[in-house]
Design brief:
With 295 residues, the chain is of the alpha/beta class. The protein is 37% helix and 17% strand. α10 links the parallel β7 and β8. The relative contact order is 0.16.
Amino acid sequence: MRFTLSDGPWRRHYPFASQYAALGAGRMHYVSAGPNESRETLLCVHGNPTWSFHWRYLMQDWGRERRVIAIDHLGCGGSDRTDEPRTLADRIGDLCEFITSLDLTNITLVAQDWGGAIGLGALQKLRERFTRIVLFNTGAFPPPSIPLRIDVCRTPLLGRLALQGGNLFSRAALRMTMTRQRGLPADIAAGYLAPYNSWVNRRAVYDFVADIPRGPSHPTWQTLADIEAGLPALANMRQLLVWGMRDWCFNPACLDRFLSHWPTAEAHRIADAGHWVVEDAPDDCRTIVTKFLNR
């Protein structure tokens, strides 16, 4: 189903022209900044319940010298809505198709939340197209546990009614993902919520939550296990890990798990920031990542 982003005051924070890539499962919406002829591309991959709006400040900063692309997963942001739920494996396939359709090379993966597993899954399939990795509060391994406040959203019927009907997950994220900030300005909050304005348009938010595996019987468990098994082979790449240490979801133990595979990775711990670290501590993130890129 085709989807068009609405207008509103949030648009002034997101000054990018909509672009689309035709994939087998639908049109993927993306935005870009910086010169197309740049020798490198920063590919920003969001999680749930966000979209490319999450990267707006960093895109404007990095786009002065580099090409920066931020995608919206199918069902999210300005991308087409799909009739069937998409699994982690599906989304990895979508991202691979996007990368090859635009013939992107010399890519620095920039990812957060579910974007980490999706981005790293695509990187492992298209290794020759990637050069560096930048991760913010994410995971790429079977979850040792599921936080209660997320697990309750998976309750049959009630979970779907709360997430798709009441938009509870997206609205809660506006407050629960940050610790420095106690809520967002109204126009920024409206930007996060803009694509998720109806039952149909919130389906992907619920599907992401439903795709979190509780155990090995869930197919996404094996997908995550395969991604983790491939992490040591990426140890020769340059990696930057930027962590909000007060994240209750992808907590510091997740950072340690990455470091167990990539012991030479550059890690920055932001003690008082939460899950949406690029929203909670944008200046810190901008400075840390820019120094990494310039080196």
